[in-house]
Amino acid sequence: MNLTTSLGTSLGTSLGTSLGKLRDKVLNKPYSAMLIFSDINISYLSTFTGHAATLLLTSKGNYLLTDYRYFEQAKVEASDFKVICRDRANQSLASLIEDLLFQDDCQSLSFESDHISVMQWQEIHQQVNQLTKLSQISPLSGAVEELRFIKSSSEIAFMQQAAKIADTALATMLNSVKVGVTERELAIELDHQMALLGSEQVSFATILLFGERSALPHGVPGDRQLKFGDLILIDFGAVVNGYRSDMTRTFVFGQASAEQKHVYQLVQSAQQAAIDEVVSGVLGSHLYQQSANILLNSEYKEYVGEGLGHGVGLVLHEQPFIGPDCHIAIEKGCVITIEPGIYIPGWGGVRIEDDVVLTDDGLKILTKSPRGLIEL
């Protein structure tokens, strides 16, 4: 093999590390191997933040396969891995994987079937069958995602920092709210403020909508101009070290109408009812039901959003997806959003969303912007 390598410091098999836990779970037999294709999962396991990489874990070693564009970066960031720089002109990824499986005498292989195309996998599968002694090749789904479900204290700290950036940026952006400003202009200003405060990127495309357009749960900011009496729905987040925040606030520009106040109060009560029930071991379906007991028994039941929230971390939407059929238990370290909403076509929508996490000291709400109705 014509390989350039950087030796990692260890196999990372100690209990308590994500890599070690994955090895203990999947590579629990001699001569076994696993392929990781997801950029997010690669970053989670190796701390490598680049792209164009594949992880190969075998009973004998951890390998990060990349090319000249990311080789030096990977050597610095992925200390638990042998970093291999593939000569793209002379060696395919499939043939490199084949060589390593043969070198480590691998007999079984699991692969992330959710994160590779059929065409790519067919090429790898055909190649490894030519030289290796694999007796079993099997797809594996969700193994790394399951580890990501519970966040460490450092991961939670990154998310708390991202939430703080979002809180501060929102407070600053609200100074730009005025008659005639467009949704797009305010969204750009909010994104700009988050960048100035240190956000690596936006957590997702910012949702910022006025008036009747606030009834679009995931609407795109446009040229709609702000008028007195409009609802303003803002859903956005910041990113720190790859970890995301996610918050929604709804305001009224000017004096709120009686109906706006009523709808807002319903949503706020529904959110608080769910937050009050977040304890270790509670099922997501139970949290959903606490919110639904209020919203689905109101005169606006036909306009209630279907879900209550979701996990958040390295990606915006992670397990658990909190709804009536969510039988996943919330545990300490699981960061979730709680975001009930009412969306009335032609009138507008109200959503209130916060990031919450269970800690040793109880429930912590990471997003701190005021949750009461504010008239701007």
From TrEMBL:
Origin superkingdom: Bacteria
Domain (Peptidase M24) ranges: 158-360
SUPFAM superfamilies attached to this UniProt entry: Creatinase/aminopeptidase, Creatinase/prolidase N-terminal domain
Gene3D superfamilies: Creatinase/methionine aminopeptidase superfamily, Creatinase/prolidase N-terminal domain
One Pfam family linked to the record: Peptidase_M24
Domain Creatinase N-terminal positions: 20-150
Positions of transmembrane segments: none
Protein name according to UniProt: Integrase
